[in-house]
Design brief:
By secondary structure, this protein is an alpha/beta fold. Helices cover 44% and strands 13% of the residues.
Length: 354
Amino acid sequence: MNTDFYDYVEKNIRGVDLSFEEALKLFELSLPQLGRIADEIRLRRCGDLVTFVVDRNINYTNICISKCKFCAFYARSEEDAFVLSVDEILRKIEEAVSVGATQILMQGGMNPDLDIEWFEKTFRAIKNRFPNIQLHSLSPPEIIFLSKKEGLSVEEVLLRLRRAGLDSLPGGGAEILSDRVRLKISKKGSSQDWLRVMETAHRLGMKTTATMMFGHVEKEEDIIEHLFKIRDLQNRTDGFTAFIPWTFQPGNTEIKRDEAPATRYLQVLAISRIILHNIRNIQVSWLTQGFDVASLALFFGANDFGGTMLEENVVRATGKPFMPARVEDIVSAVKSVGRPVARRDTYYRILEYY
């Protein structure tokens, strides 16, 4: 094996931050080279065990003033608009709990008609009925929106929602943490806004995940900038439990381009594992890639298969076919590539081995 292999592996294991030039050079390596480096790091950091969570994504509203160019989900007309009632949300959670769900991810649009009291009431109702459910909900742009709407600080919003039952934040809304890119595709605020919410949550003791949506208008330098911002925040707070990259789905959006190929997905996934020495869990995106590529991704640095996603509406709105994954589907896929598998909770605590 060449010098690059050992150099990248050893720097990751020792927790050394790569320079921008070293990181950008990763894009010049062949896909098999990247895979070998990322897989060795995964093996040394995580072992062979692959984990997953039983969860449901509940989109509580599709009314959104942001109207991002990459989004196919927001309501285009009053006839298409909806806000779920608390009873509807509780019914969806009951269905999920009946098949073993431990995590509920609630995300929606920036709806000016929903105030912080609505979320407090909803979260309290969920926790009163399902005290053991982990609420992994509301992305940073939703927190920023509530902060501005209510005239409260981000910390005050998070503290109120946490008292009402919010457990952790998903990493949605990051897209690419390069303001040059964000201004072209979104009105969700700056990269610093996203990072500020996450840093505040971490300081308050809340764990979060981090994400990246690529394959639209970004350049390779933007991907590295994004990964470095995640890495640097994790160096300060150690609050991210996982990193999840996925490819932009262009169907029914304002950005007209072909979907990034599976090879690009595997390349960026591997580079993420190599750069993010301080985030243990790297999650596949079977939702955008399908089970075959997701299983292959387990050899490109990933150690987590994500969730069963008993419901998903945002990616489905792009026209991407969606079927929820059963526990046995994920277990079978992981075992088919010779890896042990276990069900986890939101905080990556193992609940059951298969």
